[in-house]
Write a structure and sequence with these properties.
heterotrimer; A alpha+beta (776); B alpha+beta (167); C alpha+beta (290); A: alpha+beta; Aldehyde Oxidoreductase, domain 4; 32 strands; B: 167 residues; alpha+beta; Ubiquitin-like (UB roll); DNA polymerase, domain 1; 5 strands; 15% strand
Chain lengths: 776, 167, 290
Amino acid sequence: MGHSLKRKEDARFIQGKGRYVDDVKLPGMLYMDIVRSPYAYAKIKNINIDEAMKVPGVVAVVTGRDLEKYNLHWMPTLMSDTQMVLPTDTVMYQAQEVAAVIATSKYAARDGREAVRVEYEPMKPVIDPYKSLDPDAPVLRTDKEGKKDNHIWNWKVGDKQKTDDVFAKAEVVVKEQMHIPRIHVASIETCGCVADYDKVNNHLTMYMTTQAPHAIRTVIALVAGHVGLTEEKIRVISPDIGGGFGGKVPVYPGYVIAIAVSFLVGKPVKWIEDRSENLQADSFARDYHITAEMAGTKDGKILATRFKVLADHGYTDASANPSKFPTGMFSIATGSYDYDATYMECDAVYTNKPPGGVAYRCSFRVTEAVHAIERITDRFALEIGKDPAELRLQNFIKKEDFPWKSPTGWIYDSGDYHKGLLKAMDTVDYHQLRAEQAEKRKRGELMGIGLSTFTEVVGAGPSKDFDILGIKMFDSAEIRVHPTGKAIARFGTKSQGQGHETTYAQIIAEELGIPAENIQIEEGDTDTAPYGLGTYASRSTPTAGAAAAVASRKLRDKARKIAAYLLEVSEDDLEWEPGKFFVKGAPEKSKTIQEIVFASYTNHPPGMEAGFEATHYYDPPNLTFPSGAYICVVDIDKETGAIHVRRFVAIDDCGNIINPMIVQGQVHGGLTQGIAPAMYEELIYDEAGNILNGTFMDYLVPTAVESPKWETGHTVTPSPHHPIGAKGVGESPTVGAPPAIANAIVDALSPYGITHLDIPITPFKVWKALKEKGAI
Amino acid sequence: MLKEITITVNGQQHTLEVEPRLLLVHMIREVLNLTGTHIGCDTSSCGACTILLDGKSIKSCTVLAVQANGKSITTIEGVAQDNQLSPLQEGFKENHGLHCGFCTPGMILRATELLAQNPNPTEDEIRWGIAGNLCRCTGYNNIVKAIQYAGAKIRGEELPSTEPEFV
Amino acid sequence: MIPQSFQYESPGSLAEAISMLQQYGEDAKILSGGHSLIPMMKLRFATPEYLIDINNIPGLSYIREENGVLKIGGLTREAELEHSDLLKQHFPIFADVTKLIADPQVRNMGTIGGNLAHGDAANDHPAVMMALHATVVATGPEGEREIPIDEFFYGFYMTALQHGDILTEIRIPMPPPGTGSAYHKMERKVGDYATAGVAVQITIGDNGVVTAAGIGLTNVNPVPLRAARSEQALIGKPLTEETINEAALYASEDCNPSSDLRGSEEYKRSIVATLVKRMIHQAVNRANNS
């Protein structure tokens, strides 16, 4: 623990020996390419495949009508809505799958795709979510019997009456309308699969880019069980994954079509998306329109918040959330502050845009929540003329008040928010910066300092509240120690770059005293690994990491018994130090873990089960609540609006740290995925539903030039309920960084009466705002 | 109509008959089965397919295999010599310059040329030097560090600390 | 993303290439660096039947000075322009512009001839060539001919090159003493096409009077644009904040940008004005330090 062990997995990646899905090549493999809709909303009048079938190498073209024969043209979403696999009549968003071309080579499949002729009858789409609820808006989901509007659901939490009363009497009330725009995870590896159905054995092996292989196997069995593909006949293999960030949680139509085709032709079928397909059709993240309000006193005490959300879900509700949480963890939006009145409400609507609602490196809508609270807190500070750092220090939940029950019912496990912010202020030299800013303002120069002091909620989750499609959100570890004292451990999670092969080995090494380099970690094969819900929402360390610790402790208990037997003493007379048991007061009488394990195979106590294995399914008693204090300093070029992030200091608290190098690496990466939506990324649609930036030419993923040199540090407030006191960290920075950046930019512009700008805040937006205020 | 081409890949000469439209990256991945070279976009933006063509870093998704006729290619599989990691490979491992590993081969090959041209680049020169390679995981800090480490190694200087500055 | 099939030719001489272009007619395209053409072919926006690869023709890649004229071969890579000592000494604008074109790998393939012959007002070299008063040499069936840069760009993606022509050389007058040049573009992220870009070359006489000025604008007009009124506002006068402001204003008035994801028309005009001022100052600083 606490040691920056170099990663075990790196050797293969730096030598080109990683094995990703597109590297899988099987004998007789066919290639699939997908015809997609140019329209956001249209009737399909005809699909002519004649020319495509003449292309050399093309073996089949599959349409919705073909899948309909097997009742495979629809599939359920994770939120119990329904989604087309391939359409029979109508397309609902641009880039929707319309037909699949199967060929003997990638090139022939693409030629075939170009030769399929589809006749459409375009219809007027619903693009603006606010207009989707208009009485005259066309009802999009005509497939749902009795559906009379585009409203999906309404969700509310908090005490409306109490909150309204506080607002009515408050000295100060501030309000801002914010859009957290539709963005895309854009992992550098796109999505894809090789579906390999073996007709003889009635067995499917599915190599796919998935963050949750076990859950996917169950979903496939639910969708395809009726054609004989029951769960024991399905093996899902998630090999090396080139980044996930939530985008590889859902089941996309392409996977299902590939399975269907492989099932029908009895050959392996590979489908790998292009980047443009990935950006234009795969699950989006965010797209929350939020009205945020805060009530407080003139001297800065926060009294209440209200949040009203309109969620644009696209054509179907395919969000990746725990079943009981249609808005994910949005109700963490009360933030890091001590007050007791809040009310939140969300309406979800259908539009003619791609479905989704994945996390973009965040725990189920926490980013939206944190942006809302951190922006409105700054707005409040601006209103009353108080320093935003001072205001936060005034309102923080105190260290001694944990565990703390939030107004929406979360039990924050632990935290020391004052310590984190003071450390960040000290690192950045906050008061000096404010003095510099005051000088610059006199000269009309634009410099801004922005803060974000956020509380994350990760590690879903306790089985009483958390499930996906009914499956409880535990996770698992299985440890087998071989006779020579070396081990293999398998998990229900799946790393996409988080370094599980190293971190998990370190946890087991810490608990059992076997060197980490002698512990092999495996994930991602449903035939061998124990069942688990996968890796997303920063849940791997809080759940599977905990399972590793508990399974190790089960083995240590067994080891104690064996050691007592071997040393001929009572168990109570033994003491443990990493790697061995020794007799109290006689340290020379000891047995190493290797000796003990060997004995478990060669000389185990009578009546004891032989071998040295343990499995644990860890059901967390609570979520974990990592936190952070971020400070961003920007300089803005008044004439062009260009924004330079001069400094960014991030102090994270993720509890006890297993590997500081990996934790810091996660923070760096998350910060760049924080500046991305804050300043660069947004999926933009025109009124006809055409995506305007569906390639990497225009969807602006930051490079090393845009990404600042991050300054990182940490505080440690262990989780009281996690076996090793860890909290999870992969997503904190993505959650915490955008409001720090937005707050810094708005702070720079605030002398001109600018109180809010929606992210991504581009030079053009800054210039426009200054122009409108007459500042330039 | 197929074209015959002769290409040296990681020191080994290959004579192949290829379609003129075959992209170099597909020749490398699909014909020669060297899958360490990756594809991350359609628009020459991401750099995952970066290789060395006669020592110059190029994006193999935007070059035809026939254009490489008579030339020499280095892919990630050819970077380590005699089982000895290159300074950059070592730098990436020692400094946690990778997470998922998907962009790593392209980054390493791009940085190989960068350091060949300038073994002592400034941080700014490194950042601009890898501006054609997207990484979604690392936030680039440690990639910069990895390249600085490799530079020091190539220059024969004392290696910078690989401990994270995470206090 | 895979191109449609085509026939590939790799001529070993200019004459052979030109004769192939004539033989195959409009269905043939020239492959130079390929970094504009191949992406369009992958998207199947371009579907040539014949591809004439000119990369194996010797003698088309060079940067040299001859009799007071800088000559750049059409096949010269962006990376070679970026690192050329001759250019660094006399034309710092090349280091400015190449650094902002795409990225290092693309610059290892992309050529200056291709950048110009593509006729795209979003490309960066056209504005630079205007600022430097370049002449383009086209070699065709009738031999070589010189085309002044002001007569080179015709319309949207259209140039004075005729079918059968290959852009073989760019000629730029060597600048007299007291000359400086600079280029910058506002871009959304590194490697992006310009929101707006400005190239300036300016010569200051001994008496402090501007004796020559070239100003070209990137991506703010359907065709690459010379800011002629801005140049005239400077020439023959001492350089003052007033003349510089005038030049900036004229450039912002004379361009015709369109609103898009990069910003509104008004924003782009404003960027043009700002960059004209900044690039004049930058160029003058360099002139004074040269």
